[in-house]
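Milestone M4 deliverable, item 7.
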Amino acid sequence: MSVILAKSAGFCYGVERAVKLAEQTAREKGSCVMLGSIIHNAHVVQDLEALGARQVDDVSQVQPGETVIIRSHGETRQVYQQLEALGAEVVDATCPFVKRIHRLVQEAEAEGRTPVIIGTRTHPEVVGIASWCWRGMVFEGPEELERWAALPETSPGLPICLVSQTTLTANLWNLCVKIVKKQFTNFRIFDTICKATEYRQKEAAHMSEICQAMVVVGDAKSSNTSRLAMICREHCGKVILVDQASQLEPDFFRGVSDVGITAGASTPAWII
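Output delivered:
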């Protein structure tokens, strides 16, 4: 059996930057707070906690004056305001590509445009993006977007600004772009899918077309990893998502001549 490892497997730039910032802060400060999972990977979070970076799920658990690390997915405008009121020292590990989307929706709204955000409504990144504007609309895919665009109260002349979650698939994005170009006359479109994510997804699609089985490594809570598994299942009938080798069973590989391995952006190389 041959094993093909994706060239794109492992940390992306934004995740690697966030982890390094958290490690550096924990070592320098001795103790600090991670607001939410800095990345969607339990192994990495445990390692950071061992260095003194304690994880909390809400600002209410932060003590006045503490050093707080903002996760790679970013945070809401309200969270920054609450941390400022607490006198917290903020280490912002938000992925720069996510920060750019925050600026885009703010600027669009200042221009009188309605920000239209494509992504998983409950995902931390999308929740954060939506908070940086007041009139933003969030749609999970082309079907929702098309239904909204067809409503009588949605004017074809409505000035809009289209952005997306950084881990959205190119296919979903392209379908949404077509709808906007068909239904609206006054729009600005920004392709905000992370290029590393796009390359990772294309590579996974290609590998799953030529392999009899695919192993996707990463945390199932990660949107990036879940989308990789979804893409692989579109082309390959035998796909498994695991976050460590012990979850693999020999029977899964029975009759397989070529197996491909890919990994989400939140998966460190040592796990792969």
